[in-house]
Design a protein that fits this description.
Strand order of the largest sheet: 3-4-6-9-10-11-12-13
Bound molecules: adenosine-5'-diphosphate, iron/sulfur cluster
CATH class of the largest domain: Alpha Beta
Number of domains: 3
Structural class: alpha/beta
Number of strands: 30
Length: about 700
């Protein structure tokens, strides 16, 4: 296959100051959860993207000084020379594939409350970042920076820039975005100073300008300097001199950096879930930047379509196609476009499990790409796998887990048969991808089925419910049972455990809705699962015209959806749809007319009218077939995976199934490797924090 000529524009080299990027594919800085404590894991994660064709590959946030400490959230550091080695490993690995390496030098200001280093957080005017989620909240209020603090900050940036050059980075960032310190200087909401750094826009810009100059001077112009800037709030601010303050800022700084990396201001809008935002959602905010500067511009938008990417360049919106999530889901996206194999792209589904990993403080995990974060630890490559399989594998269940197991086993060279009870493949996603906003999630199935259908060693059997006798008769060398899970209509006890099963008229679970159950309103959705299912069902039933009350034991709707940036949008969606929200309550009974509720802490009882109750709580694996086979097929040949083994998010099912298929037939699958930080002699002597 050859490259589609309409995509040629994406492969043009672009100059970034003193450096030349080989193409327009730019992996922007993004959190990976990989710190200096995991230098090999990090290097391999980033290098895999360089191998996959990205012309620029950047780090995530890299703190310039201990007064920018984001713990317990993971971040990298360039605090002293001892940090250089860990980064050099990544730079070398990225350079080996002909890509440029960028580092997002970062000071969090009031948003980094220094839980470990215990420095007073720094800020222009003592205005805290008022986080409303407990993981981010802190009673620590920031210090107002004096002139000496500002001088220090500029020096820390320059020192970190020098170290970055030694490590091998080509592009050094000044980061004025997402509520971090230079951004706080840009906005009067944070910056109420009356000195040369506050007041007029010119003054508010001064710090950013000085940071850019200091970064350039520190490496004598040998490295490119990028400005990463959030433009949502600035664009909304009127200006006397331009269309908005954002226009004024970019025009003023037009020749200062070698590249503009433009983005939104808040994680939930910057890294918006596909459930609420389409591909290219940043364009209305960042589309003007190129009209104000000749410097190259990179921006993101969860781009997975090469046609959209080429159009962004042709229409003059962006020079570089920036990507965080699409590069995680498919590190080989550029290589596939180059090879004219766009249909092979493992498209990001916009579920934001990757972001949840950062919130969890762990290495990045991806629903679509089970190898993300496992490149070094397990030696998993997203595209290559040893072709060492011999014999036949029968996979039972054609959901995410079954299809992932089948694809991985088939790539290893096994002959694979997949039996699915339903008329269509897709498992839980047959229903879930039809819920409001979740259609992009079906890419999990499309990608896998698309490949399986083209493989000669694969046979797909829809509408084939297998029982134990069928399986035994089939006589495969390996049997993988991926039969999924079912929701339970269980209540939730005072001690926060799944309680008694609730039976009665019009008590439903998501599986009933999936099967087309009639729903009589008014409906109550009781959600103690707290991820997307409860809120998505509430939305779906509301869209059908039912009056819906959403009840949850948590303090907010879709409480775990905070981790995936869904939660704020769920609340907006409920308000738009008129879905009533009741928090911190549990259902204690339902007679088909009245729903009994108890406040989770006080126990105070109340009741509301409802004709139908949907309980979204606990799931149990469907392991009946597996257990019936256990006596008939040896343990070495019988495998239980996905939701049937341990119900979870789709990401969990895919990962389990991938690992299961990787291990098929191996006497001893390779043990994961354990990374460790570089600890130079003398570090313990105390020059640091
Ligand atoms: P997972 O997320 O683990 O893949 P799903 O629930 O999405 O789980 O998919 C499980 C699939 O297994 C469903 O599509 C279901 O129809 C199918 N299935 C369950 N039992 C059988 C069976 N006995 N034979 C064939 N397919 C089955
Ligand atoms: Fe995309 Fe989801 Fe993977 Fe993140 S976890 S990269 S949003 S598919």
């Amino acid at each position: 296959m050859t490259r589609d000529p309409s995509h040629d524009v994406l492969f043009e080299p672009v100059r970034i100051g003193p450096k030349l990027a080989k193409n327009r594919f730019y992996q922007v800085p993004h959190a990976s959860g990989m710190t200096n404590a995991n230098p090999r894991v990090r290097a391999a994660f980033r290098a895999t993207k360089a191998e996959g064709g990205w012309g620029v590959v950047c780090t995530g946030a890299c703190s310039v000084h201990p007064s920018s400490d984001d713990s317990p959230f993971p971040f990298a550091t360039l605090w002293d020379d001892a940090d250089i080695h860990a980064h050099a490993l990544m730079c070398d690995a990225v350079h080996d594939h002909g890509a440029l390496a960028g580092v997002e030098l970062w000071h969090g200001g009031a948003a980094a409350v220094n839980r470990t280093t215990r420095h007073a957080p720094l800020s222009p005017s003592g205005i805290p970042w008022m986080a409303t989620h407990v993981g981010f909240m802190s009673p620590a209020r920031p210090k107002i920076m004096d002139a000496g603090d500002i001088r220090d900050l500029i020096r820390w940036q320059a020192d970190a820039a020098r170290r970055a050059e030694v490590a091998g980075f080509d592009i050094l960032y000044v980061y004025a975005g997402m509520g971090y310190l230079p951004y706080q200087f840009l906005l009067p909401d944070y910056n109420r100073r009356t000195d040369a750094y506050g007041g007029s826009l010119r003054n508010r810009l001064r710090l950013v300008e000085e940071l850019i100059d200091a970064t350039r001077e520190a490496t004598h112009g040998r490295c490119a300097v990028a400005l990463r800037i959030s433009l949502e709030e600035l664009r909304a601010r009127p200006s006397d001199n331009a269309e908005s303050e954002a226009h004024e800022v970019i025009t003023f700084l037009r020749d200062a950096p070698d590249l503009f990396d433009v983005k939104m201001d808040y994680s939930a809008s910057d890294c918006a879930p596909s459930r609420f935002s389409p591909e290219g959602s940043h364009e209305p905010v960042v589309d003007f930047v190129k009209s104000c500067t000749d410097r190259p511009v990179v921006g993101v938008g969860r781009f997975t379509s090469p046609d959209t990417m080429a159009s962004m360049v042709r229409r003059g919106v962006l020079d570089f196609i920036g990507a965080a999530r699409p590069s995680i889901a498919d590190p080989f996206l550029p290589a596939k476009i180059e090879a004219g194999a766009s249909e092979d792209i493992r498209e990001c589904i916009g579920c934001n499990m990757c972001i949840s990993s950062w919130h969890d403080g762990v290495w990045v995990r991806c629903t679509q790409n089970p190898t993300a974060g496992e490149e070094w630890r397990r030696g998993w490559h997203p595209e290559r796998i040893a072709r060492d399989g011999a014999g036949e594998v029968l996979v039972i269940g054609g959901g995410p887990a079954g299809l992932e197991a089948a694809l991985t086993a088939a790539r290893r060279g096994f002959r694979v048969a997949v039996a699915e009870a339903g008329a269509d493949f897709g498992g839980r996603l047959r229903f879930e991808s039809r819920l409001p906003g979740l259609s992009a999630w079906h890419r999990v199935i499309d990608y896998r089925l698309g490949h399986l259908r083209r493989m000669e060693n694969v046979a797909l059997y829809p509408a084939s419910r297998l029982g134990p006798d069928d399986v035994a008769e089939f006589g495969a060398d390996h049997v993988i049972v991926a039969t999924g899970a079912r929701w339970n209509p269980t209540l939730f006890t005072e001690s926060e455990l799944p309680g008694a099963l609730l039976s009665g008229p019009r008590v439903l679970i998501p599986d009933d809705i999936a099967a087309g159950a009639q729903v009589e309103g008014p409906v109550a959705v009781f959600d103690y699962d707290c991820y997307y299912m409860g809120s998505a069902i509430a939305e779906a039933l509301s869209d059908r015209g039912c009056a819906v009350t959403y009840v949850t034991t948590a303090g907010a709707a879709a409480a775990w959806g905070f981790m995936t940036n869904e939660q704020p949008q769920v609340h907006r969606s409920f308000a738009r749809r008129g879905i009533a929200l009741r928090t911190l309550e549990r259902v204690t009974g339902f007679d088909g007319e009245w729903l009994e509720l108890a406040q989770v802490f006080s126990g105070q009882e109340t009741r509301i009218a409802a004709r139908t109750l949907v309980i979204v709580g606990q799931r149990t694996g469907e392991r009946g077939l597996h257990d019936a086979l256990a006596g008939r097929i040896g343990a070495a040949r019988l495998h239980l995976t996905g939701d049937a083994a341990a119900p979870g998010a789709i990401a969990h099912a895919i990962y389990q199934a991938h690992a299961c298929a990787r291990a098929l037939g191996l006497d001893a699958p390779p043990a994961p490797r354990r990374d460790a930080p570089f600890v130079p002699a003398g570090l313990a002597s105390g020059a640091g924090w």
